[in-house]
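Quick one, T. Sequence first:
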Amino acid sequence: MNPLHAVRRLALPFALALPATAAQALPATAAQALQIHGVAVPATVSLGGHQLLLNGVGTRYFLVFKVYVAELYLPQRTAQASAALHMPGPKMLRLVMLRDVSGSELGTKLTHDIQANLSTDEFNGMIDGLARMGQLFAQHKELHSGDVIELADLPGQGMTVAIDGQSTGAPYSEPGFFDNMLKVWLGDHPAAQRLKQALLGDAKASD
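Structure tokens:
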């Protein structure tokens, strides 16, 4: 099957959602875990021997339905999307599901949102990895409330995907793969504008 066709053949209705996002921003001095919609959000995580700081956290909504809590961890905090995207060092994005969602639909909508934020050449450079990711999420026929997806990037190794703490295979080693993925939330055409603001620590995005 053509990889691009495999990437594009799925759909996620909830991701066509209104941009309404309930978000909780992180004060620069926060040193302890937050709670949002019953999800414990740690102030720091460890990745490859490095401690990452919670940059921001928010909730993805479809209409009035909560879909997931998103948490962004960086080597240092920033309120600028460009700085987060180009910041050297390890990074992590965690998604904690708040409702049951089709895995294949989630994988494909992520791909759709990536394409909306990349040039044609940038997107074409990710096709093989995105096709592989689409197959991964298709294998998880349903993601359940409470499931945790971690997208973790280590320079020199690439991006890994873990679901509920279980590795899902070899890293995605295409150059810039993680940062291009991160544009789903921080790009010029994010999935939800207020969630983008929340992940960048904007207190005004808090509902």
